[in-house]
Write a structure and sequence with these properties.
single chain; mainly beta; globular
């Protein structure tokens, strides 16, 4: 199933459009995000998580006034990552990427764990990609099913939490303080 989805920022100026291909146990997506903080930027990305909702590759190209950056983040399916072809042991064990300000990348851990539909909670390590600088770090996170269509996201290395509203597929409809869907 192919979907085109658009989100707009809730508290900050932000826009994102993604073309998403959902399969029985995976997702591929191509998208663009426009942001204004800490400076105006355009981020184009391609996400490939084709088997068991595990990220295999994230390519991100970011540009702004007179600059351009590129990142290729790859995962072997078992927990080892490379960044632009170089080993990234600091991300070892993470199965998912998390692109800053993007409501799309919360999808994979929720779908793999089934928390968008069923009671429970699970902790995940994410390869978190900052925008627009493309800095990477390991980000421990928790997802907790509150009721059908609502999952609480908690950062385990800060006090940030949010109750994510989801559609039947597990894609974000509203991410408080970040974004809400306007199409798709």
């Amino acid at each position: 199933m192919t979907r085109a989805i658009a989100w707009q920022g809730v508290e900050e100026w932000l826009a994102e459009h993604a073309e998403v291909e959902l399969a029985d146990n995976g997702i591929t997506a191509t998208g663009v995000q426009l942001g204004a903080e800490p400076e105006a930027y355009r981020a184009e990305y391609h996400l490939d998580a084709p088997i068991d909702w595990i990220t295999r590759r994230l390519e991100v190209d970011v540009s702004g006034a007179g600059w351009r950056r590129r990142l290729v983040l790859e995962h072997d399916g078992a927990g080892a990552w490379t960044i632009d072809g170089k080993a990234a042991p600091e991300l070892e064990g993470a199965l998912d990427c998390d692109l800053a300000f993007s409501p799309l990348t919360n999808f994979m851990p929720m779908r793999r764990s089934g928390l968008h539909e069923s009671a429970g909670s699970a902790d995940f390590a994410m390869a978190w990609v900052s925008l627009p600088d493309l800095a990477l770090h390991r980000s421990p996170q928790r997802y907790e099913h509150l009721r059908p269509g609502v999952v609480r996201f908690s950062s385990l290395d800060s006090d940030f939490t949010a109750e994510l509203e989801l559609d039947a597929d597990g894609l974000v409809v509203r991410y408080p303080r970040l974004a809400e869907r306007v199409a798709g």
